[in-house]
Structure formats: structure tokens, C-alpha cells
């Protein structure tokens, strides 16, 4: 099969020729070239190893010239992990650029001038106070002895003689070294020496930033595409139903958030009005009339034709389907909620209308019912779920309801409580927060970004588990890890919850998935394949010697 990246190698090389500093960074950092590089060029780029062209792994071939002169040299840079297609090239190149420039000191980092006392300081302070207390408390026979010093005497007599001496020795060695390290870093980055105690936390924070380089680069790329008007217009996107990413996804998101269905303007038909006002008898009469009309027109199955009509109905500029209309009706006419739910049950149980109809964004009614935007309605969500709704169903952007839940609109108690409850419901029904959307972003990453933004708002010292929703995520991670092969690696449920057997991954044997017709393994493959290695059965041994060698 042809290499989709190699076929566009010429264009990519021409594009990168406009970024000479980036190419130099690639050569020095990723190519591990120690010489002073004057200039560099990209020769080719591909995603397939080739023995014919002596390319042992997928990557890019760069040529460079040293400042000392001499002939042009060549270096091969490997893509690790491998690229999956052409759409990953630009984000990967940008991510590699960020990492290379940071490693080489070419990136201009912001200067740190302020100090915030880390929350972990109390641990060090308490430990030092205890050591001083144990070391210098008087003995019982001393004239200044007090009963308050009895615990110190007990510790001294219980511990080995060398324990306290060793503790002071570690302090005498490690603390001066830490101070020297803080001084060197502070001078290198032109920081006041007083910020030294917060350097370990800042180092961790910088590591997290580096890990997110690819995502940040992708966001910047999308913003640039929006400014330049790349991609189809909103009118063209509204006429299509294909998956969207990049500028097109951002463009439709912006339009969608600014438009909504207005009942008085958009609901002009009898069926829609019956749904909106919770008039089940009127709705049933409309269905009978539609069925009779189809029968007179010669339809072989008039009832099925009526179900198709209901399934295909849409209202308003955002093309709201019937089960989403029911959800919106419960929010706008709260006193009629019981009637609205009766209509939902009638359409599901009696008419067998599928619940997977989507609006213009590709989102199903279950998505909106649990996403907290516009509502978190677990009762209605359960009705849709029992009728075949999928909590992991994606919209046109590739997002699940979890990504919407993760985007908090505020940090007040009610907002965070609702988000926690929605996420817990999502997990309980087989939700997965590691599915990546069409731009490679997962709900977990969205929550991580929200956590970092909150840290900037309330300070860098708040534990992760104490931030909104993260306690739910960490508890679910621990639960799934504890179950191991007794739970599906994707949805986290076992045979008792789903009624389906669990089947091990045929390649690595290290992950279990719900048996077909479940799509758990297919949905998890993009994440799982990064760690899926061929299974190697353990070798039988006798007294530590492989039996193959003994019988050999």
C-alpha cells in the first residue's frame, strides 16, 4: 500500500524550508548531532520502513551543514511512536519542535519573579521540628527535665544509636546540595533566589506543560486556520454529516453555541406541538393519521414508515431530533415533565423509535441528557440508555458526553456537584474518558487542562484529588485497576453488569473486552495499541532452569 505521507513529502519539505531554525533544532536534538549546525534541510519524510531505500524506521531524513564547513551530512530522525497517518504529521512536527527548542534552550520561557510557599512545606517543617525535639530534649535525670520530654526519651531509647546521627548527616549533605541547585537554576533563569523552595513543584509543572505540547500546538494551529478562513463555510457544514476536526469543527461549534431552537418559531407542526406540550393523546392521533396515510399510498409496512417519519423529524436551526425535543421540553415546561416522559416511553416501547437520532452537531439525546449542558437528567438518561442509548456515542467532533461534562462553566458548589454526579453516572454506565476526539484530545485531557486553569486561579498547591471531578476519575481508575481482567478495559464493567462474557485481547492477552456485538475493543484500539505487545507465554522451568534446555 502506498505511503500517504511519502507521497506528500515534497510539499512538506518545501513547507519546512520556511522554518530553518526548527530544522536545525531537529538535527541537534532529535538527530543527536553534537556539531555546531549552520543550516539544515528536510530531504524526505515517510511513515513506512523501506529496505530498498535503506530506511530502517519511519521518520524524516535531514541534511545539514556544520559551521566549520565541509560536505553536507545526512541524519535520520525516527518517529516514536510511529505516525498513524498524514493527519498526524503537522501536530507531531510542532510537538517535536517544542521539545527540541526547550531541550536546547532555544525556547524563551517566561521569567519567574514571585514566590508562593508550597503546601508540602509543612511536611519538612514538621519533620525538622521532630528531629530537633528528639535530639535536644533533656534526659530524665537532668534538672530541667519535664514530662513533655518523655516521648523524645522513648524515641531515643527505642531507635538504634546511629539513627539520629544519620538523620543529621543526611540533612548536612542533602540540604546544601539542594541550595546549590536552587542557586544555579535561579541564576540561569534570572529568578530571585527566594523562589528556590518552590522549584520542585515548578519543575513538575513544566514537565506537564511539555507533555501537553502537542495538544497546545494543535489548538494554536486551529486558531490560525480559523483566522485565515480555512475549510468549509458553516452553510456547507450544515449540509453535510461527516466527522469534523480542526478549523471546521471549531467553526461549527461556534455557530452551534450561538443558535438554538425557539419553540414559538420552530415548532409549527402538530406532532412537534404535541411533544412540546406533553399531549400524548394528540400525538397518538397524529401517528394514526400518518399510518393511515402511508397505508393509502401503498406502503408495504405503514407502521414502519411512520416510525421512519418520526425518526427523521427535525426542528429549529440546530436540527433537534424528537428525543432531544422531549429533553428541551422538560426544561422549558417543568410542570409537564411527567407527560413528557410518558411520550418518551410511548415512542420507545410502543412505536419502537430508535433513540440514536442526532442533531446538527451529531450528538444524540443521551449525550445532551447527561452532559450538564443543558442539563443532567439521570432519570431521562436512564430511559434512553435502557432503550439502547450509548454513553460513549460521539458527535461529529469525536467527543463523548464526558468531554462536555469536563468543560466546567464555573467552580461554584452547584456546578461542580452536578459535574461530579454526571461523571459518576457516565462511569457507572460504561463511560470511558480516554477516547480521543478527531483532534486527538480526550476528556481526561480536558479535565487536566481545567485542573491547571483552576490551579492558576486558586494557587498551585491544591491536591489533584481535591479538585472538581478528579476524585471521581481517580476512584474509577483505582476500581478498574483492582478488577484487572475481570472488567472490560474500555467500559470497566464485568459480565454481571453487561450479561456478556469477557474476551482477552488476542495479541497481548493483557486486556479483556466485552464480547461482540459490543464495540468496546474497537473503540479502545486507538489507545490500547500504543501498549499492546505480542504475548509471550512463560517458559516452564525446573529449579530455575528452562525445561527446553534440560530436554534439549
From TrEMBL:
Gene Ontology terms, MF aspect: zinc ion binding
**UniProt xrefs under InterPro entries:** Ankyrin_rpt-contain_sf, DUF2470, Haem_oxidase_HugZ-like_sf, Znf_MYND
Q: Which domain of life is it from?
A: Eukaryota
Q: Which Pfam families match?
A: DUF2470 (PF10615), zf-MYND (PF01753)
Say yes or no: keyword Metal-binding present: yes
Cited SUPFAM superfamilies: Ankyrin repeat, HIT/MYND zinc finger-like
Keyword Isomerase in annotation: no
Q: Which UniProt keywords apply?
A: Metal-binding, Zinc, Zinc-finger
MYND-type domain location is 488-532
Write down the Gene3D superfamilies for this protein, in alphabetical order.
6.10.140.2220, Ankyrin repeat-containing domain (1.25.40.20), PNP-oxidase-like (3.20.180.10)
| Name of protein | MYND-type domain-containing protein
Which species is the source of this protein? Fomitopsis schrenkii
Q: Could you read off the lineage of the organism from its UniProt record?
A: Eukaryota, Fungi, Dikarya, Basidiomycota, Agaricomycotina
Amino acid at each position: 500500500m502506498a505511503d500517504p505521507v511519502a507521497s506528500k513529502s515534497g510539499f512538506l519539505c518545501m513547507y519546512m524550508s520556511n522554518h530553518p531554525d526548527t530544522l536545525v533544532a531537529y538535527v541537534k536534538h532529535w538527530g543527536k548531532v553534537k556539531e555546531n549546525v549552520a543550516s539544515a534541510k528536510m530531504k524526505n519524510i515517510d511513515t513506512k520502513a523501506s529496505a530498498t531505500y535503506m530506511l530502517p524506521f519511519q521518520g524524516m531524513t535531514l541534511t545539514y551543514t556544520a559551521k566549520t564547513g565541509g560536505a553536507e551530512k545526512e541524519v535520520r530522525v525516527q518517529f516514536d511512536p510511529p505516525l498513524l497517518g498524514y493527519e498526524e504529521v503537522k501536530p507531531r512536527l510542532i510537538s517535536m519542535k517544542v521539545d527540541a527548542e526547550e531541550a536546547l534552550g532555544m525556547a524563551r520561557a517566561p521569567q519567574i519573579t514571585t514566590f508562593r510557599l508550597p503546601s508540602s512545606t509543612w511536611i519538612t517543617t514538621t519533620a525538622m521540628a521532630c528531629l530537633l525535639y528528639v535530639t535536644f530534649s533533656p534526659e530524665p535525670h537532668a534538672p530541667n527535665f519535664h514530662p513533655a520530654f518523655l516521648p523524645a526519651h522513648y524515641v531515643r531509647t527505642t531507635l538504634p544509636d546511629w539513627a539520629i546521627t544519620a538523620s543529621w548527616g543526611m540533612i548536612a549533605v542533602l540540604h546544601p546540595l539542594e541550595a546549590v541547585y536552587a542557586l544555579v537554576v535561579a541564576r540561569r533563569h534570572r529568578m530571585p533566589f527566594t523562589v528556590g523552595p518552590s522549584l520542585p513543584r515548578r519543575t513538575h509543572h513544566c514537565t506537564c506543560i511539555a507533555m501537553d505540547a502537542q495538544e497546545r500546538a494543535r489548538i494554536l494551529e486551529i486558531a490560525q486556520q480559523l483566522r485565515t478562513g480555512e475549510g468549509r463555510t458553516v452553510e456547507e457544514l450544515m449540509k453535510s454529516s461527516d466527522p469534523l476536526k480542526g478549523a471546521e469543527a471549531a467553526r461549527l461549534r461556534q455557530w452551534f453555541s450561538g443558535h438554538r431552537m425557539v419553540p414559538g418559531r420552530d415548532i409549527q407542526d402538530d406532532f412537534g406541538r404535541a411533544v412540546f406540550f406533553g399531549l400524548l393523546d394528540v400525538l397518538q392521533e397524529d401517528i394514526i393519521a400518518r399510518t393511515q396515510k402511508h397505508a393509502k399510498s401503498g406502503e408495504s409496512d405503514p407502521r414502519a414508515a411512520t416510525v421512519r417519519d418520526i425518526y427523521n423529524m427535525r426542528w429549529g436551526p440546530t436540527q433537534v431530533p424528537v428525543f432531544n425535543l422531549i429533553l428541551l421540553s422538560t426544561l422549558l415546561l417543568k410542570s409537564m415533565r411527567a407527560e413528557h416522559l410518558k411520550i418518551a416511553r410511548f415512542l420507545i416501547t410502543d412505536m419502537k423509535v430508535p433513540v440514536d437520532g442526532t442533531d446538527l452537531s451529531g450528538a444524540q439525546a443521551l449525550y445532551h441528557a447527561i452532559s450538564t449542558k443543558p442539563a443532567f437528567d439521570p432519570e431521562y438518561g436512564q430511559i434512553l440508555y435502557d432503550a439502547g442509548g450509548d454513553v460513549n456515542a460521539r458527535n461529529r467532533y469525536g467527543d463523548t458526553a464526558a468531554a462536555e461534562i469536563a468543560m466546567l462553566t464555573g467552580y461554584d458548589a452547584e456546578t461542580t456537584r452536578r459535574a461530579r454526579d454526571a461523571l459518576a453516572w457516565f462511569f457507572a454506565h460504561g463511560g470511558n474518558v480516554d477516547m480521543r476526539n478527531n483532534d486527538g484530545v480526550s476528556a481526561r485531557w480536558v479535565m487536566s487542562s481545567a485542573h491547571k486553569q483552576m490551579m492558576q486561579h486558586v494557587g498551585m498547591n491544591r491536591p489533584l484529588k481535591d479538585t472538581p471531578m478528579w476524585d471521581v476519575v481517580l476512584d474509577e481508575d483505582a476500581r478498574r485497576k483492582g478488577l484487572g481482567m475481570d472488567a472490560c478495559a474500555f467500559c470497566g464493567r464485568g459480565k454481571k453488569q453487561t450479561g456478556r462474557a469477557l474476551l482477552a485481547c488476542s495479541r497481548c492477552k493483557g486486556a479483556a473486552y466485552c464480547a461482540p456485538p459490543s464495540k468496546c475493543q474497537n473503540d479502545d484500539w486507538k489507545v490500547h495499541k500504543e501498549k499492546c505487545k505480542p504475548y509471550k507465554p512463560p517458559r516452564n522451568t525446573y529449579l530455575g532452569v528452562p525445561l527446553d534446555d534440560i530436554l534439549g
